[in-house]
Amino acid sequence: MISGLGHCEDTACSHLLSNPELVRLFRCSLHCDRLLCLYHLNAHNVYYEEEKKQNDVVFNELKTSLTLYQTIFEQHLQEYRQIVHQASTLLLHNTSTIVPIEQIRPVLERIQRAIAIFQQEKGWIFWKKSNLLEKILI
Ligand SMILES: [Zn+2]
Ligand SMILES: [Zn+2]
Hints:
- The protein is mostly helical.
- It has one domain (2-99).
- Helices cover 71% and strands 9% of the residues.
- A three-stranded antiparallel beta sheet has the order 1-2-3.
- A hairpin with a 7-residue loop joins strand 2 and strand 3 (35-36).
- The two termini are 56 Å apart.
- Residues 28, 31-32, 34, 44 line the site of one zinc ion.
């Protein structure tokens, strides 16, 4: 938006131009509502466009990560429900009949594996990172 003549409100501009010459000013109606010279209005726009591009990249990363996290969490939850159901059924049946050990063992191992995954999660992430690094280096 074209305004009258005056001094650019960008601090870099007023400091650089020590002469009090008046310039054509344009209002930055998109971002800061300041009156700027054409050069600074343009520079300002470029800066915001860049900022927005970087923002979009990070936002997309957030979206992708959230989707992945939700998927992983849902899988864990499903596994948890299955394990709890299997173990509870076995425990319930064991009060009336003797459940064969070969039926108990896989469920027990599944629980122990699940516990190990949660307990070693930090170690696993470290392993994954160093593994990736190795692949990059090779
Ligand atoms: Zn300026
Ligand atoms: Zn602005």
